[in-house]
Write a structure and sequence with these properties.
disordered N terminus, Beta-lactamase, 5-stranded antiparallel sheet, Serine Threonine Protein Phosphatase 5, Tetratricopeptide repeat, 3-stranded antiparallel sheet, alpha+beta, 19 helices, 2 domains, about 45% helix, globular
Length: about 500
């Protein structure tokens, strides 16, 4: 009888544990769902979210609209362009070729692309391309990329020759500088070695074996079921995203996927179906600035500002779309955020908030963007009034608004696009006052001064940007173009 009582007790205890675990999972799901809904309400998110741990999916849901004009809802199987999240797939394809002995990590570019310029291509290795230490200028950093280059079709060979073969900005391997040109070249190497298109190799080597049926290389002309339309959020609302020929992001950012398919990808990375353990270790080993091969391998700080979690992650941004994927291998946790809004979405912040919930940390409540207040003021009066309004809101309602450095930067560029250069300069100058140690705000001010024809002030701003951020290759490049040294 005593033994029977103990058995009943054990069963009851297990049932209680299961009930508590189930309640805990439900509580986490509800907390994350409320968090995402708040981001949606504040127009800082619109898209799909998937959250999972070692036991499986906790939350998988669409928020907002896949097409604003037709008010079609986002669903978990909505397809989104994922931008630079593509890079991890390119890295895996290269490592598969390494595994087969067809590519070596220390191979120079010219071994596989003999037409590439010899003076630099013979010194840049596959590893340099994978971890952003090649020194090649990134084509997306060109001032004319957005308005001119990005809309035109090029063959892979044409593009490499014209836009991914510039003079080196630093000695290969000596610095880290995030670089889309390097990953474009990796795509060209994949095609050369396999004799197949990059899209075909992706499909045959990754998508089909893993059952990723809703993932592919995006082509604008293709009629693709359930593909979301892309938008940008300006201070005065949403607008359709500018067109980009998807052959240009290429191996650096041309894929589309769903949260469901990226979950399949995440789970596959725990086994040996994608890569051997040895090559996965190479991929996830941090190099300069904590970047591995197609992954950021830096710890993420949770919303309490103290707790750090060992993770692998990557974000993506392309015209009209934002994405962020973060994995915690130790606990098999993954957060996947896909959005069909580019500028103005805080995909990473929302992902970190969801990750905080999984780790028992209270997530930060998303705040109203102060940029919208400033823009509304600029619609009625001069920049001085808008700055006064900013100061008043910050003094009276500091807990209700988000005062991040990007808020006024977005407003400044919006003014520049509208030809309001003097006002843009005033806004950028105010942002420099607020964030004097941020190299990027000095860079933005320099850009506005240069557009306004004030070369002397532009030089001062660009030099200060470089002092604060020596990795700012854009400032270095602009100074060189206008015939000025990087330092006095």
């Amino acid at each position: 009888m005593k033994r029977g009582w103990m058995d009943v007790g054990v069963v009851a205890g297990m049932a209680l544990l299961l009930a508590v675990s189930s309640a805990s999972a439900a509580s986490r799901k509800d907390s994350i769902d409320r968090l995402a809904a708040k981001y949606l309400e504040l127009k800082q998110f619109n898209g799909a979210l998937l959250v999972a741990d070692e036991k499986g999916i906790i939350l998988k849901k669409g928020y907002g609209q896949a097409n604003f004009e037709w008010q079609l809802p986002v669903t978990p199987d909505t397809k989104f362009r994922i931008g630079s999240v593509t890079k991890q797939f390119t890295a895996v394809l290269i490592l598969k070729l390494v595994e087969e002995g067809k590519v070596g990590l220390e191979d120079p570019i010219t071994k596989h692309l003999p037409d590439y310029r010899q003076d630099t291509g013979s010194r840049i290795t596959v590893t340099h391309l994978l971890n952003h230490t090649s020194g090649i200028p990134s084509y997306t950093g060109r001032p004319d990329f957005g308005e001119k280059i990005s809309r035109n079709p090029y063959t892979v060979a044409e593009f490499v020759k014209q836009f991914a073969s510039g003079d080196l900005e630093f000695e290969p391997g000596s610095k880290y500088a995030y670089n889309n040109s390097g990953y474009f070249i990796l795509g060209a190497i994949i095609e050369k070695v396999t004799g197949k298109s990059y899209a075909q190799v992706l499909r045959e080597r990754i998508f089909e074996p893993l059952g990723m049926k809703n993932t592919g290389f995006d082509v604008s002309a293709t009629v693709l079921a359930k593909r979301a339309s892309g938008y940008e959020r300006n201070p005065d609302g949403f607008v359709n995203a500018a067109y980009i020929d998807m052959g240009l992001p290429y191996a650096a950012g041309s894929m589309y996927s769903t949260v469901e398919d990226l979950y399949l990808w995440d789970r596959a990375l725990y086994g040996d179906k994608v890569l051997s353990a040895e090559l996965k270790q190479k991929m996830f080993t941090p190099g300069l600035a904590g970047y591995g091969f197609g992954w950021d391998v830096s710890p993420i700080k949770l919303d309490d500002g103290k707790t750090e979690v060992a993770s692998t992650s990557h974000g993506g941004g392309i015209n009209g779309f934002s994405s962020y994927l973060v994995r915690v291998p130790e606990k098999k946790e993954v957060i996947i955020v896909l959005s069909n809004v580019g500028r103005g979405v805080r995909a990473r912040s929302m992902a970190v908030g969801a990750l905080s919930v999984l780790h028992g940390v209270t997530p930060q409540t998303p705040l109203k963007p102060i940029g919208e207040v400033v823009w509304e003021s600029l619609a009625k009066g001069p920049a001085t009034d808008a700055i006064t309004q900013y100061k008043a809101v910050k003094a009276k309602k500091p807990a209700e608004y988000f005062f991040g450095v990007g808020e006024l930067n977005t407003v400044g560029y919006r003014l520049m696009q509208g030809g309001r250069l003097r006002e843009a300069i005033e806004i950028f100058k105010f942002n420099v006052e607020l964030f004097p140690q941020d190299g990027n705000v000095h860079d933005s001010l320099g850009e506005a001064y240069l557009a306004h024809g004030d070369k002397a002030q532009a030089v001062t701003s660009y030099r200060r940007s470089l002092e604060l951020d020596p990795t700012n290759t854009n400032a270095e490049k602009v100074l060189k173009e206008i015939g000025q040294p990087a330092a006095k």
